[in-house]
Design a protein that fits this description.
The protein is an alpha/beta fold and 938 residues long. It folds into 3 domains: 7-43 and 110-316, no CATH class; 427-648, Rossmann fold (3-Layer(aba) Sandwich); 653-889 and 914-935, Rossmann fold, CATH 3.40.50.300. The strands form 5 sheets. The protein has a 7-stranded parallel sheet with strand order 14-15-13-16-17-12-20, sandwiched between helices. Strands 1, 2, 3, 4, 5 and 6 form a 6-stranded mixed sheet that branches. The chain has a 6-stranded mixed sheet with strand order 21-25-24-22-23-26, sandwiched between helices. Strand 2 (232-241) and strand 3 form a beta hairpin. Helix 4 packs across helix 10 and helix 16 packs across helix 17 (487-497). The chain binds adenosine-5'-triphosphate. Residues 432-434, 437, 455, 457-463, 577, 655-657, 851-852 line the site of adenosine-5'-triphosphate. This is SWI/SNF-related matrix-associated actin-dependent regulator of chromatin subfamily A-like protein 1. One of its GO terms (molecular function) is ATP binding. Residues 35-58, 72-82, 170-180, 193-210, 219-228 have a biased composition (Polar residues).
Length: 938
């Protein structure tokens, strides 16, 4: 418990205080003489008075960045606020600050900081606009003085709250510039004295006249050294209180007057303490420093560091004669293509500099100043002349990326992209490009063939990538790195869009023994690339990476294999609908793959965009910060992203895609079984025997496709496809997919770490025949058919579970087909039937025009025989049920492979009323793992 002061002690305190005040008044007077003579010339600085061309400022350019989310922000709150974390620490930032190359300019028009401060009609709060200054109750100058400046506290607008004796001349100078009358220093000194003696002020007093300091504010008896702040100093400290801070200190009348003058003051009668918003922090610390009887420790941060050495108790030791060491630091942040803002605390000197910028603009809401990029270097040069201010410039990467804006050569809000000359590219491809796809190709070519094409799913990244690569055809051989399950789909796309390309020139790498450079177009999976990369003697000049977010983790074998290839390539075309699924750190490898000179060190990127935090175990880069700026940088120099909603008018309602799965995934046993079944069909047999052979072939197809189907679904999940339906009709396929997804759900926690899978993932596994009607899944926009069905009407009905009223997006429909299986016959049969229906005006759908493999039809006579058998068998009345039953009961383990126990009700379609029952119906209708998310969009 603290003891009350004795009469003797109080007398001595008051004497010391009076002495200190007198010394300060003297010093201020002497100093102010000096200031007035220097300050007058600067006061007339015309740049300050004129409003500046801020009206010319492109308004929209300062709009916050909106659509096109490329990742989900983890801690959005951290992005815009002043960030006192390690990277901003005084020590570290100072290192940057002192860099010789950044100090080259000899500070044109350099004037001592105190002069700038005196001329500025700065508002009392860091980010207040000039107009506000007159209304603010706190009128003292928050000096950023250096060694000669000494204390420059200027009187309060409200004299009853003046905590300090004021220097008359300083006062006059400020009053002149702010249009206020000069004040009387002596009178104010008296007022200050009176206010100090107001012992009945209710603060943390227990009784009038007796100070009962809190433990933190225990009165101290000092040694009386001349270097000490005052004979008796009241110690206190600032502590965080939510987004505000609280001051823990004993009673001090002067400090109390300061408290009362701060706009954000709140007194908490319970704790008997005052708290303030962070906006008032610098002002309070500044004022507290100039009080000889107060020793206020700055806020402590989580890492135990103080905010600024200037506000440490050591910094106060030499008061009152020592200068204020207050230090404000902050950084420039890009807010649009054309402008940046200063994210920094209050400094009157700095505001004076801001006011010298012609393009200055003040945002009353954010309380931040912003400027055109062309004034960036000017502002930084001037700010560097202020010893108490550290305003970090935009990172070099940004100044390089926005060089044209910095040099004032372009102020447009969107980059100008010239039309590329595509006369050398196959006309079939060029004429089929949708307008936005053409714009994508133009963008890529304007960027020298290096970009991350991050269009939404299904917008045709493949056709654009092929077109971009074809533009650089003279630089081929081309390397295309893709997820394993889509290697053959890419082959089909090249065949479709580049008829000029000889099919033999396409090399799809299927095993670790194949050559990576055998073709003019070489298509390889990520995993095989890591095995074969050593084969590369001469580098590929043109490289496409599909699903480039597979490279997001630099420690994976995929990434380690691909990055060196990309580093030496001249053209790098990255494709991904989801370049990052959860955090900006995932973008780093893709950014440097496109622009190797950007952020050569990950740490610098992490500090700026990943909210990097130092932890006991190292740095944590899992957060996010400055996302608006990151988006601007990406859009300017790295990435092009359009959402479906942006280009919906150009898209068909349904986009069908045939996914040709790898024949290599079909096991030797399954292949043998398939071949045997196919042979049976061509033998001269009875109708019934032929039908049985067909059923067997059909069933073996299902079995053979299982690994490829599962691989494709897993790739979709890893590619960030969040919600989709999978249709199949063989029980074995439904079971296998269900099982694989169940495993995935169980493994989710591991997978979340491995692939950063979204918790929003939801997959519905449905039987084509049991769930093709009556249900609505319009919150999904992707349907995968793991198997084909001979009746296109049933397929279209199944497609329409997603494509129906309520669906506002274009729907992607992927048909998984495997060469050398029943799909070879089913697919052409479906196309044929659709065509007939279309001609009769019964169907609007044209499968063949909408899909890659238009020539997916085998014309050898034996195959024609099988095809005819398919047509016959599947068209005959009553055969549907027989085939379905066979599909349901197919047991791959059984010798014949044609039958098992015909168990469940087949072919029954579902309506809404039976929905609940169906969700229970195992193997027919499975959801992974969020049924509700399909019916009510997330
Ligand atoms: N201009 C076009 N003309 C005809 N078909 C097109 C065109 N653009 C895209 N398509 C078709 O749309 C479907 C989807 O295209 P693609 O697979 O390239 O999309 P994507 O952007 O790569 O999607 P994802 O991210 O899902 O892989 C394909 O079947 C493709 O052939």
């Amino acid at each position: 418990m603290s003891l009350p002061l004795t009469e003797e002690q109080r007398k001595r305190i008051e004497e010391n205080r009076q002495k200190a005040l007198a010394r300060r008044a003297e010093k201020l007077l002497a100093e102010q003489h000096q200031k007035t003579s220097l300050g007058t010339s600067i006061a007339g600085n015309p740049s300050q008075a004129k409003p500046g061309p801020s009206q010319n400022f492109p308004r929209e350019s300062c709009k916050p960045v909106s659509h096109g989310v490329i990742f989900k922000q983890q801690n959005p709150g951290s992005s815009s606020n002043y960030d006192p974390k390690p990277h901003n620490s005084h020590k570290q930032a100072k290192g940057i600050w002192k860099k010789p190359e950044e100090m080259t300019t000899a500070c044109p028009g350099h004037s001592p900081p105190r002069q700038v401060a005196l001329t500025g009609i700065s508002p009392p709060l860091a980010q207040s606009p000039p107009e506000v200054s007159k209304q603010q109750p706190l009128g003292y100058e928050l000096g950023q003085g250096h060694a000669q400046a000494s204390i420059r506290s200027i009187p309060f607008a409200n004299p009853t709250h003046e905590p300090l004796a004021k220097a008359k001349i300083s006062q006059e100078t400020l009053a002149r510039s702010s249009g206020q009358p000069p004040r009387d220093v002596e009178l104010e000194a008296k007022t200050a004295k009176a206010s100090t003696l107001q012992q009945n002020t209710s603060y943390i007093h227990s009784s009038p006249g007796s100070v009962t300091p809190r433990p933190e504010g225990r009165l101290q008896q000092t040694s009386g050294s001349s270097l000490q702040k005052a004979a008796v100093t009241q110690k206190g400290r600032c502590v965080r209180k939510g987004d505000r801070f609280q001051v823990l200190i004993g009673y001090n009348a002067e400090l109390l007057a300061v408290f009362k003058s701060l706009p954000s003051k709140i007194y908490d009668p319970d704790s008997k303490t005052w708290n303030f918003s962070m906006n008032d922090y610098s002002a309070l610390m500044e004022a507290a420093q100039s009080l000889p009887t107060v020793n206020l420790q700055p806020l402590e941060w989580a890492d135990g560091s103080s905010e600024s050495p200037s506000t440490s108790s050591a910094g106060q030791a030499s008061l009152p004669s020592a200068p204020s060491l207050a230090f404000v630091k902050g950084r420039c942040v890009l807010i649009s293509r054309a402008c940046f803002e200063a994210d920094i605390g209050y400094s009157q000197d700095l505001i004076a500099v801001f006011k010298q910028m012609d393009s200055r603009r003040y945002d009353v809401k954010t309380r931040k100043w912003s400027f055109l990029l062309e004034e960036h270097n000017k502002l930084i040069t001037k700010a560097r002349c202020l010893p108490q201010v550290q305003l970090d410039p935009l990172p070099k990467t940004l100044t390089l990326a926005f060089a044209s804006q910095l040099k004032k050569t372009s102020l447009s809000l969107t980059p100008d992209v010239p039309e590329a000359d595509l006369s050398e590219v196959d006309p079939k491809l060029v004429s089929n490009l949708m307008p936005f796809q053409r714009a994508g190709v133009n963008f890529a070519i304007a960027k020298g063939g290096r970009l991350l094409l991050a269009d939404d799913m299904g917008l045709g990244k493949t056709i654009q990538a092929i077109c971009i690569a074809a533009f650089y055809r003279k630089e081929w051989p081309l390397l295309v790195v893709v997820p394993s399950s889509v290697r053959f789909t890419w082959e089909q796309a090249f065949l479709r869009w580049l008829p000029s390309l000889n099919p033999d020139c396409i090399n799809v790498v299927v095993t670790g023994k194949d050559r990576l450079t055998a073709g003019l177009v070489n298509i390889v999976s990520f995993d095989l690339l890591s095995k074969l990369e050593k084969q590369l003697k001469t580098p590929f000049k043109v490289v496409i990476i599909d699903e480039s977010h597979f490279l997001k983790n630099s420690r994976t074998a995929r990434c380690r294999a691909a990055m060196p290839v990309l580093k030496v390539a001249k053209r790098v075309i990255l494709l991904s609908g989801t370049p990052a699924t959860s955090r900006p750190a995932e973008l780093y490898t893709q950014i440097i793959a496109v622009r190797p000179t950007f952020f050569p060190q990950f740490h610098a990127f992490g500090l700026r965009y990943c909210d990097a935090k130092r932890m006991p175990w190292g740095w944590d880069y899992s957060g996010s910060s400055n996302l608006g700026e990151l988006k601007l940088l990406l859009e300017e120099a790295v990435m092009l992203r359009r959402l479906k909603s942006d280009v919906l008018s150009q898209l068909p309602a349904k986009q069908r895609k045939i996914v040709v799965v790898a024949p290599g995934r079909i096991s030797a046993t399954a292949r043998a079984a398939l071949n045997a079944a196919a042979k049976e069909m061509t033998k001269d047999k009875t109708k019934q025997q032929q039908k049985e052979a067909l059923i067997l072939f059909f069933n073996r197809t299902a079995e053979a496709k299982i690994p490829s189907v599962i691989e494709y679904i897993m790739d979709l999940l890893e590619s960030g496809k969040e919600k989709f339906l999978v249709f199949a009709h063989h029980k074995v396929v439904l079971d296998a997919v269900t099982k694989a997804l169940e495993r995935k759900v169980t493994e989710r926690e591991d997978l979340c770490q491995q692939f950063q899978l979204s918790p929003r993932h939801a997959v519905a596994v449905l039987s084509i025949t049991a769930a093709n009607m009556g249900l609505t899944f319009s919150s999904a926009d992707l349907v995968v058919f793991a198997e084909l069905f001979w009746n296109p009407g049933v397929l279209i009905q199944a497609e329409d579970r997603v494509h129906r009223i309520g669906q506002t997006s274009s729907v992607g429909i992927h048909y998984v087909v495997a060469k050398g299986t029943a799909d070879d016959y089913l697919w052409p049969m479906i196309q044929e039937k659709i065509k007939v229906l279309g001609e009769a005006g019964l169907s609007e759908t044209n499968f063949s025009e909408m899909t890659e493999a238009t020539d997916y039809l085998y014309k050898d006579p034996k195959q024609q025989q099988i095809y005819d058998l398919f047509q016959k068998s599947f068209e005959e009345e009553g055969n549907d049920m027989e085939l379905l039953e066979a599909a349901e009961s197919f047991d791959p383990g059984s010798a014949s492979g044609t039958s098992g126990s015909s168990s469940q009700d087949m072919g029954d379609t579902l309506d809404e009323s039976s929905l609940t029952a169906c969700t229970q119906k195992k193997k027919r209708f499975e959801f992974f793992d969020n049924w509700d998310s399909f019916t009510s969009p997330l």
